[in-house]
Amino acid sequence: MSDLLKLGVLISGNGSNLQSIIDHIENDSLKATIKVVISNDPDAFGIQRAKKHGLKVVVLNQKNFKSKEDFDLEIIKTLQENSVELVILAGFMRVLSSVLIKAFPYKIINIHPALLPSFPGLHGQKQAFDYGVKFSGCTVHFVDEGVDTGLIIIQGVVPVYDEDTEESLAKRILKEEHKIYPQAIQLFADDKLKIQGRKVRIKSAKKKTINPIHNPPLGGF
Ligand code: GRF
After folding, report:
1. What phi, psi does 41 have (nearest 5°)?
2. Are strands 152-159 and 193-196 parallel, antiparallel or unpaired?
């Protein structure tokens, strides 16, 4: 039990990615343990999800802190007190200050609902939908001091159909988020991520060919 990777999950809202991580841990497909869930919103639904599964929840409301740095220092303290080894941002609606990023170098990851580096920042799904892309998806990446600029670990791709709405696209993307986030955490837990410049290689991954896909599909070309 003690050699399981210790996670701290930061949330602000619905917490469906938190739920997916919990479910993968409970069905034993993710070998990790959640030591603490931190929410910056006392009303986040994710808090209820965490409590239902007996997880420790700490609510840190930024309104009660003098500055962003003070708030982040409290987050660091909470993570360290709970021996967290990997910090998971799961819909945490704040940009982290450098003090927090430096406290956990290459040990903070985030999921973004678009294929980075396209459509960073808020509402990645809507940005992609409005732009008219034929594919979108989601990206798990290490967090650096920029907004969604960190090294990319894994991406999931979904098609965008003519009849899609912003909502139907967001739903399709979220479904993939729930698969790639636990997968990325497991790769980290297995020490399989090797950083080379901007590239995150997967150590000892067998080369698998992925066929190119086209949307709309090629008709006889
Ligand atoms: C997800 O779309 C994630 O990509 C983004 O925030 C949303 C969080 O959703 N960073 P949930 O709270 O995990 O349901």
Report:
1. -125, 115
2. unpaired
How far are the Cα atoms of 59, 80, 110, 138 from residue 36, in angstroms, in the given order?
Answer: 10, 10, 16, 25
CA torsion through residues 123, 128, 129, 135, sign: negative
11 C-alpha to ligand 1 centroid (Å): 9
- In this prediction, residue 2 carries a pLDDT of 58
Low-confidence ranges of the chain (pLDDT < 50): none
Dihedral angle over CA of 9, 23, 29, 17, nearest 10: -40
pTM of this prediction?
0.96
What pairs with residue 154 in β-bridges? 140
H-helix segments, the chain: 16-26, 45-52, 68-81, 98-103, 124-131, 166-189
Of 24, 112, 141, 178, which is the active-site residue? Answer: 112
Model pLDDT for residues 25-54, shown as the tens digit of each residue: 999 999 999 999 999 999 999 999 999 999
Secondary structure of the chain: what % helix, strand, coil (to 5)? 35, 25, 45
CA of 193 relative to ligand 1 center, distance in Å: 23
